[in-house]
Amino acid sequence: MLWFSLLVLIPLAALVVKATGGGLGTFVDVLKGSETRDALWLTVKTSLVVTIVNVVVGTLIAWELVRDRPVAGVGDWVWGKVRVVVDLVIDVPFALPTIVAGLVLLGLYGPHSPIGLHWAPTTQRAILAAIAFVTLPFVVRSVQPVLEELDTDVEDAAASLGANRLTVLRRIVLPALVPAIFAGASMSFARGLSEYGSLVLLSSNSPHRTETVSVRLFSFIEQSDTRSASALATILLIVALLAIVVLDVVQRRVAARG
Amino acid sequence: MGRWLRRVLVAGYLTLLVIWPAWYVVKGAFAGGLGAFFDVLSMPEVTSALWLSAEVTVIAVAINVVFGVGISLLLVRFSFPGKRVISALVDLPLSVSPVVVGLALMLVYSPAYGWFGKPLDGVGIDIVFALPGMVLATCFVTLPLVVREVVPVLEELGEDQEQAARSLGASTWQTFGRITLPGIRWALVYGLVLSLARGLGEFGAIKVVSSRIAGQSMTATVLVEARTQFSPHEAYAVSFLLALAGIVCLIVVALLRSASRPILEEKK
Q: Domain containing A117 — which CATH number?
């Protein structure tokens, strides 16, 4: 417990104390800075877009992994192999250091891009790709186990009663998946907001355009402006906590219903 | 037809987003051939960064295993006011920005303005800008990985066996060593391997709390950033090693998982 206090509680307390020491004024001042505001807006916007992409693609990937089992024939044999690789690849963003992800994206989308994608490395699209990369596993990994547990009996029953595939999906499958999708989405949103490692190479040196919140925060720290840094960090901290609380509430709901 | 469309979509998306970039690291690392790759790895600054990363991660993971199990036991076996708050705070490092973590540690342990940092500096103990700071930062970000693996297993195990052992006269430590520890063994191993992967790759928090002097206090991830612009082949070589280590950890966990519950796999 003492260790936990030294490691987590006291540092976080220090952060909040420092930030609130100057009253609400500090927060207002920080948010007044147009660079910070742009950074916040860009980060929130990008994370939202990525989260929506993740919800759609992540659910699709989970579906393909769980439900699309290879049956027979050459095509399905190939798919069987692909599926194993897909299952492994999903976790790669967890294992890959974020700075490595940043380096690669810089190489791929940068000036010497091998695919002729001349998105300058510092475009907002590159940031989108970086965040999509690091948040890929969240939705897939939270939907997958739920989908595995889901009994196909109910779906078969609905189909036998004349529901077409779309109706089955909408009325039976999706409602069961919503909590898991939502949980994955909130994790992915929180992670997107806080991402730093993979973005630092992509977004450095161009405030207003491609600077994200974490990068902005780091430059406050570099300038020894601990007060502004703490205020901004506290905002991020609150968002992160909110994501956890939302997750917890959703999980309790589901547990209570089951 | 729809099925193939979905399959191609999934495979295509992942290829573009993950496989191809990963391949690019390999290509970048070996662009100058195997010799150049090993030349980079034998540069003193690179070896020292790799060793430092390994050292910090191993210490942090060792600390984490001990305290992670302690915190898990606390969360599962005891009830106390504020337990839900603690449980939420344990998860925090997963969703908060590593830069925030670094800043929070600075505010407490910095020799210039930290709450504890100043008095500790007075007696000559450095935390931030030295090894302990980097270890602390790594511990912070990897803490949830152990706790999250161990807690559900502890909950599932229940207390019956522990109580039985105690009623037969086993001491607390004997109960822990003979009953609890074997029960959570696998969960602990997963948590440990995941922490290793995460710790090696930690960047944001470490960057804030270290002084980043090449050859002395620069970890491998920070080195990658520093070298990207002027000597990218070095950055790629180190990245390749880091990525390899991470992926090996991942595969180890995947293998352990399927080995430790073969029955579940067969049922599928």
A: 1.10.3720.10
